[in-house]
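Risk register update: the risk that structure generation would not scale has been downgraded. Supporting records follow, first protein first.
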Amino acid sequence: MAEKKEPFVSVPHWLMDYLMKAKFNMTQYQILLTVIRYTYGFNKEWGQFSISFLVQKTGAARSRVTEELKTLKELGILNERYEEKNKRLFRINDKVMRSNVTEMLQEGSPPSGTTGGPSSRTSGSPPSRTHIKKDFKEKDIKEKHYIALESDDHFIEIYLNHLSQKKKKHPRVTEEQREWIINQIEHLREYEVTAADWEEQVKDHFEHLPKNNNGNIIAFLHASHRRFDIGMYDQF
């Protein structure tokens, strides 16, 4: 009887070369390896990854995973997009990594896009977020860019529809606030809050909303503990 072969992940040489020299911290490495495992491991370019899934696979704290995932996106190491019903997809940004492999081999040093920090960050010290592009300044990361809250998520769409019925337009939000909104909604879904449950509470919210209230969804989500008996995803 033929011996059963163990399954394996086929990883390109350039990606292995990159990972061997890049100086990520431990949580960043764990997130990247998880993405590689569930994309390259299934011959897929994109994979669906929730915060809870990454927490389960990495064993890191939820707040740490959220923070380091954001860093990897800012560095351009991971690409992100959304599909219907707020499915969050990630892929390895091969263009950025390939260019940095060339840089590493030529200079014999880590690429400019890696964090440059130790394998585990000292408590209380902020993460280094040097961008891949050398002319990218730290202040650009901290600068707030306000964007319209789009209805690309079904829960957000429901909320905005009820807001428009009140002749109100949702205020613009920062990219960081939008990410928090998406993460909290995903957190509610993971606790099996349905679209019907959500809409019931949204209706109640707007029935009692004062006229001078701008209807910001962030305030509504901060009441998740009262409306859905579920706390904030990042409260611990």
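Supporting record for the second protein:
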Amino acid sequence: MTRVIVMDLSRHNTVMVGHDRYFILQADGRRLLVRDYCPHRGGPLSLARRTPDGRRLSCPWHGTKVGVAAVQRTCLPMVLSGDEAVVLLPEGEDAPVSVIRKEVLANLPPDAPCADGTGGPNTRTTGAATGDAATTGTPCP
């Protein structure tokens, strides 16, 4: 039997169903509840940063690029009314459900700073002490 949950999107942006995570992705002017899972090794796509063209997410674990269109195809059925969302959870899921709020970097523009005020992607400098400064692909500390 399908379970239904109601989310207040002004307060929550993540759903945990057992060990599965879903987060609100803003894409093409729409809000979608998508799976928080990179197909490469299961990294949290909610912490991914968009590539400069905005069409892909760069996984925070290994830098794997995942198309936003592919992520959109993992969305759960959801009906929006203002900031309220009625979500249909996958069938057969009898696991406990938690609705929480966490930082979602995937919704930030590619060059936006992180919540702690540090720079966006490719801004962490390594090797500064030796004069061999280089940037890494690590999105945020």
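Helices lie at 68-72. On this basis the risk owner (M.S.) recommends closing the item.
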